[in-house]
UniProtKB/TrEMBL annotation:
Protein's UniProt name: Family 10 glycosylhydrolase
Entry keyword set: Signal
Leader peptide range in chain numbering: 1-23
Glycosyl hydrolase-like domain mapped to chain residues: 45-362
Domain Golvesin/Xly CBD-like: residue ranges: 523-653
UniProt key word Signal: yes
Protein species of origin: Nonomuraea ferruginea
Length: 654
C-alpha cells in the first residue's frame, strides 16, 4: 500500500514582537489540550535502533578490530542515530553469557576479539555510554539472559566461564547451550551480572530480548526434569512452573534495578504474539506461535503487573498478513498497556524492507512508514525500535528515508518516566549570530536541554509553540547550542527548556531574540512553521522531492476561498519581493490564486503549479505595511482542475 496523502490539522499562531519575551508559566506549557498539534511532529516519541553484537551483526563489524577502529565504528552508529533524529540506542552488551565490560562474574565477549575472555584493551560499555550521552542519546543496555552459546560444546567456552565451572547450571538444546531458568542459583547469578552493569555504569535502561526458554525444536524436549522434580512442587504442570521461573526473573529484576537506580528504565522486547484468540479469549486475532506457550513468556502479565517500564513487542509482520497482521497486533498491544503506566514501543522489521525473500509486501517502500501511520491511531504507542542498525543504514528501497520524511522530520523527546519533578526553567545568557549560525548559551540545572526557535520576535511566549516539535531544533546535555540552520536575513526568538534525567520538562526560558542580518530583511515561512495556518480540508504530503522542507500542503479547488495563510512580521512599511516555493506536477493546478495582503488592499496573482517547481519563483513586488499579520495566502477558489499547493513563501525587502 502507498501512503501519499495524509490529512492533518495544523492551526498554530505566532504572536506579536519585541526583543525580550517572558517565560510562559509551567501550567501553560503542560496545558496542551487547547493547542492543535501535528501528528507528524510529536513532542514525545522514543525512537531507537537495536545495535546487535552477537555474531557481529552490527558492531563490531568483525572480531579483532583495533580499539580505534571499534570506537570509530560505534561513533558512526551513533551519528546515524542522530542523523535520523533518533533519541536512543539499544546496544547488546551481554550476547552469549559474556560481556562488553570488565566483569567480575563473566568473561569478555568473544565478539570483541574473536576469543572469549580476550581483553579488548578498553572498557567498551563505559565508552559507549559516554559517546551516547555526548549526543544526548539514551543508551539501553541489552542483555540476553539465558543463552550461553550458539553451539552445544561446553569445551569451547573459556575455562573460567561460569557455565563450564558449573555444569549443573546448563543444558544443551537444539544445538545450543542455555542456562537452566528453573534453578534459583542461575536466576540469582543472571540478575547479579545485570546489576553489575547497572551499578557500575550510567546506563539509561536495562533491555531484555525475546529469548527466554528456547524456541521449540521438533522432536526435542527441554532437559529440565530434574530441576522440575526439585523445585516444581505446587505447580499443576511443568509449563506453569517454567512460566513462573521467567516471571520471577522479570519481577526480581524490576525490583533490584529500581532499588539501585530508580531512573533506569526496565524494558523487554518479546515475541510479538502473547496468545491467539483461538486459544485464549484475551489473545489477539492471530494464528502464529504463542510466546506464553512456546517460550513461557507471559508478556501480558508483565504489563498488567507493572513489572516493566516499557514493552517493545517484535511486530515484524506486514499490514494485512493473515497469520499476524501488524494492524491487529498494534491495536491489541495498545489495549493491553492502556491505563497500566507501561509504555508501548513497536519493534519494527527494518531487516525485511526491500529483501526479496521476505515477500512482495516488503518490497513496498511505504510499508514501514505505514506502520507508523497506524501507530498514530493509538495514543498508547510511545515510539519504535528498529532491527537492526545495519538495515537502518542500508535504507533499501529508500524505505527508511520515506519513514523519516513522514514521521521524523523534527526531533522528539522521549516520554517522561516516573513522577520526578521537572527542573526549574533555564535562563538564556547569550544569543549571538556568527559565521556558522546563531550561538546560544544558558544557565540551568537540567540533565539535558531542549532548544526551540520561532520566527520573528513575539512579545510573549505562545504555549502552543511548545505543544509539539515543530519548533524544536534539538536537545543537548551541554549548556550551549549553535543553530546552524538560522538564515541570515530572518529574525528569530529562541527558548530553552530543562529536562530531568527521566525527561520531565521545565517551563521555557524567557525568549532571546536575534534580529535579521545580512544587509536587508528577508523571512522564509514554511508550511511546517507555526506561522502557517490552514483549515482541516488541507492535506499534507511528502510525495514530491521538489518540496521545501519535510512536506507540503494540498487541497482540491472549490468555489470558496478557504486560504492557507503564511504569517510574517514585517519590520517596516516598504516595498517587498514575494516569492513562492512549490513542487511542480502535471496533476497540480494551472492557476492557483495567491493572495498578497498589500498596503492598498489584497492583490491576487495566479501561479501555474504544473511546472517551475522546486525553486523560488517571484510573484511580484508589493507595498506592505509594518506589523505581524497574514501576508501571503494560497486560495482554493479557482475553476481549473488539480490540487492547489501551499509549501513556502519568502518575503524580502528591496
Amino acid at each position: 500500500m502507498t501512503t501519499l496523502l495524509r490529512l492533518v490539522l495544523v492551526a498554530l499562531t505566532a504572536a506579536l514582537g519585541t526583543l525580550v519575551v517572558p517565560a510562559a508559566p509551567a501550567a501553560a506549557v503542560t496545558a496542551r489540550a487547547a493547542c492543535a498539534t501535528d501528528p507528524a511532529t510529536p513532542k514525545r516519541q522514543l525512537r531507537a535502533m537495536w545495535i546487535s553484537s552477537v555474531a557481529n551483526i552490527d558492531w563490531p563489524s568483525r572480531t579483532g578490530l583495533s580499539v580505534s577502529a571499534q570506537q570509530a565504528e560505534f561513533r558512526a552508529w551513533l551519528d546515524l542515530a542522530v542523523q535520523r533524529r533518533m533519541n536512543a540506542v539499544v546496544v547488546q552488551v551481554r550476547p552469549t553469557a559474556d560481556t562488553f565490560w570488565p566483569s567480575s562474574l563473566e568473561p569478555w565477549s568473544q565478539w570483541l576479539t574473536g576469543a572469549q575472555g580476550g581483553n579488548p584493551g578498553y572498557d567498551p560499555l563505559a565508552f559507549m555510554v559516554a559517546e551516547a550521552h555526548s549526543r544526548n542519546l539514551e543508551l539501553h543496555a541489552w542483555f540476553n539472559p539465558y543463552r550461553v552459546a550458539n553451539h552445544a560444546d561446553p569445551n569451547q567456552l573459556v575455562s573460567s566461564h561460569p557455565a563450564r565451572r558449573n555444569p549443573s547450571w546448563r543444558f544443551a538444546y537444539d544445538g545450543k547451550l542455555y542456562y537452566n531458568p528453573g534453578l534459583p542459583q542461575v536466576r540469582g547469578f543472571i540478575e547479579d551480572v545485570i546489576m553489575e552493569a547497572v551499578t557500575r555504569y550510567d546506563i539509561d535502561g536495562v533491555h531484555l530480548d525475546d529469548y527466554f526458554y528456547p524456541y521449540p525444536a521438533g522432536g526435542q524436549t527441554i532437559p529440565d526434569s530434574a530441576a522440575y522434580a526439585q523445585y516444581g512442587g505446587g505447580f499443576a504442570s511443568v509449563h506453569d512452573w517454567r512460566r513462573e521461573n521467567v516471571n520471577l526473573l522479570v519481577r526480581e529484576l524490576d525490583q533490584r534495578i529500581h532499588a539501585a537506580k530508580p531512573h533506569v528504565a526496565f524494558g523487554i522486547s518479546p515475541f510479538g504474539i502473547w496468545r491467539n484468540s483461538g486459544t485464549d479469549p484475551l489473545g489477539s486475532a492471530t494464528s502464529g506461535l504463542q510466546s506464553y506457550d512456546a517460550i513461557y513468556a507471559d508478556t501480558r502479565r508483565w504489563v498488567k503487573q507493572g513489572w516493566v517500564d516499557y514493552i517493545a513487542p517484535q511486530l515484524y509482520w506486514h499490514i494485512g498478513y493473515s497469520v499476524a497482521d501488524y494492524r491487529v497486533l498494534i491495536a491489541w498491544w495498545a489495549d493491553v498497556v492502556r491505563n497500566t503506566g507501561v509504555q508501548l514501543l513497536a519493534g519494527q522489521a527494518s531487516y525485511r524492507a526491500g529483501v526479496s525473500s521476505h515477500g512482495a509486501d516488503w518490497q513496498d517502500p511505504d510499508e514501514l512508514s505505514d506502520h507508523l501511520h497506524l501507530n498514530r491511531q493509538h495514543p498508547e504507542v510511545a515510539g519504535d525500535i528498529f532491527f537492526s542498525a545495519k538495515d537502518v543504514r542500508a535504507n533499501r528501497i529508500n524505505s527508511f528515508s520515506i519513514l523519516a520524511a513522514a514521521h521524523y522530520a523534527k526531533p522528539s523527546l522521549p516520554h517522561p518516566r516516573g513522577t520526578a519533578a521537572a527542573p526549574a526553567a533555564p535562563a538564556i545568557t547569550s544569543a549571538t549570530r556568527g559565521s556558522t549560525g546563531v550561538s546560544l548559551a544558558w544557565n540551568g540545572g537540567g540533565t539535558a536541554y531542549a532548544v526551540y526557535r520561532v520566527n520573528g520576535t513575539p512579545s510573549a511566549a505562545d504555549p502552543c509553540a511548545f505543544a509539539d516539535a515543530r519548533n524544536l531544533l534539538g536537545t543537548t546535555r551541554s549548556r550551549t547550542f549553535t543553530d546552524t540552520t538560522a538564515a541570515a536575513g530572518t529574525a528569530y526568538t529562541y527558548y530553552v527548556t530543562a529536562l530531568a534525567r527521566t525527561h520531565q520538562e521545565s517551563a521555557p526560558s524567557a525568549g532571546r531574540a536575534v534580529t535579521a542580518s545580512g544587509g536587508g530583511f528577508s523571512v522564509t515561512v514554511d508550511n511546517a512553521d507555526a506561522a502557517f495556518t490552514a483549515g482541516a480540508t488541507w492535506g499534507s504530503s511528502a510525495f514530491s522531492a521538489e518540496r521545501h522542507g519535510a512536506d507540503y500542503r494540498f487541497a482540491d479547488p472549490v468555489a470558496a476561498s478557504d486560504p492557507a495563510w503564511f504569517r510574517a512580521s514585517i519590520p517596516s512599511a516598504g516595498t517587498y519581493r514575494v516569492e513562492v516555493w512549490y513542487p511542480g506536477n502535471a496533476g497540480y493546478n494551472s492557476a492557483t490564486p495567491h493572495i498578497v495582503a498589500a498596503s492598498g488592499g489584497n492583490q491576487t496573482v495566479t501561479v501555474d503549479q504544473r511546472t517551475g517547481g522546486g525553486a523560488w519563483r517571484s510573484i511580484g513586488t508589493f507595498s506592505l505595511n509594518a506589523g505581524t499579520y497574514n501576508v501571503v495566502g494560497v486560495s482554493r477558489w479557482t475553476t481549473t482542475a488539480g490540487y492547489v499547493i501551499a509549501d513556502a513563501v519568502r518575503i524580502t525587502r528591496i
